Amino acid sequence: MKQTPRIKELLSTQTYSVEEVVEKIQVKTxxxxxxxxxxxxxxxxxxxxxxxxxxxxxxxxxxxxxGLGSYHPSFLLLGVxxxxxxxxxxxxxxxxxxxxxxxDSEKLLQDFSIKIVNGLKGVIAQFDxxxxxxxxxxxxxxxxxxxxxxxxxxxxxxxxxxxxxxFFASASQFAFYPQFFFGAEGFNNxxxxxxxxxxxxxxxxxxxxxxxxxxENLDFNKVARDFIGCSGGDIADILNKAWISxxxxxxxxxxxxxxxxxxxxxxxxxxxxxxxxxxMRLTAYHEAGHVIAGYYGxxxxxxxxxxxxxxxxxxxxxxxxxxxxKLSYTREDIKGRIIHCLGGKVAEQIMFNTNTSGxxxxxxxxxxxxxxxxxxxxxxxxxxxxCLQEEVLPSEYLNSIADGKIQEMLIELESKATEIVLEHKxxxxxxxxxxxxxxxxxxxxxxxxxxxxxKPQTTSTRGKKKSQPKT
Length: 471
Hints:
There is one protein chain. It contains 17 helices and nine strands. The protein has helices at residues 5-12, 18-25, 46-59, 85-96, 105-110, 114-124, 145-160, 198-208, 220-226, 232-248, 256-268, 277-297, 331-352, 360-376, 396-423, 425-438, 443-450; strands at 28-30, 75-78, 100-104, 131-135, 166-171, 189-192, 303-307, 317-320, 440-442. It has a six-stranded mixed β-sheet with strand order 1-3-4-5-2-6. A three-stranded antiparallel β-sheet has the order 8-7-9. The protein folds into three domains: 5-192, 3-Layer(aba) Sandwich (Rossmann fold); 198-268, Helicase, Ruva Protein, domain 3; 277-450, Methane Monooxygenase Hydroxylase, Chain G, domain 1, CATH 1.20.58. The chain has 471 residues and is α/β, with parallel strands linked by helices.
């Protein structure tokens, strides 16, 4: 139908120009010749990279594959910020030799009116075929479910208007999405990204500090263990901050100590001030108690670092190494972890005949572990193989017996922790006094004390987990 001047005028009021919509929600467009991302350069998520590499090969076939017809997938990418979701999409566009249009969903959410939606369609329509990425479609950040449903509907509407282009949406967290957001009308593939494993973290570290002067003795494997659970973006950010700290302190090279200190500052907050002599002594013996109880009371305990530093949420902490390959725990493992938790409390009692409020988080952790041991894992031999989760609707009688078993277990293991700390009181004192002098002890220094004349332990597990701080 021929459009009259009046209809053209009405249509023009229902859309922003390409330039206007690009400015309003900061749409980024990149042509293939300006895109220098390739799958071969991505570190981590090897299986996902292989999946998309194969997908590119499938989609670039000139002849359709029997049984698939005109296969045209779209993807919802799930994973924390900085994990490589956007990099994967940029690489997909490069390998497909297509332009990419990147839309900031948080900015789009502020105004997804008809004018904005039509303007976005105008941006995409510049290309016969392209890759479109809606970044950060995070349902969990939206308070109004009706607004979010409408927003997701508009995204699907845009997607379905361009059947030749490839659409991606990325989300930092997975929450409930309306059913229409999946399947034929929405995004028909979900891909979950995981944090990099130890080997990939080591590769990322080497990549990010390649142009920074660093200590020639820097142990990359050791540094990688400190970054357990971090995304590539997290690692890059922390290493950048560590290098800035180097420059501020007039140090010529990046060292392990500076990297480690930056990680702890980011995790637990910066040091506030030096503690009084009394607080320092109490805290040092508390943390030394954790080390002694953990080392002699557990089957595979390995300490990574101990410190007595006044931070926003802690006075000190003991950080054990955790084997990333260990996926389940035995009775002995859980009992050893409880003994480790109670080591600080019994050390205070032995050395000062008192207890501080700093044991609260330790007791909370110990109680949670004991509760799991008895109620959920069926590990208590006398209580039996029973799981008392809420959906099981346990009776008051069973809950009462279970609570008694938990209390009994905690009292028994506190007694065991006391025996251990008393037996190795000399090493408790040695570690505590060194902490008072230095504030921070690393694994090699602690192991030299624990093993006496033996050489410091060098064999370690592949990763570590941040401990709960003393509060």
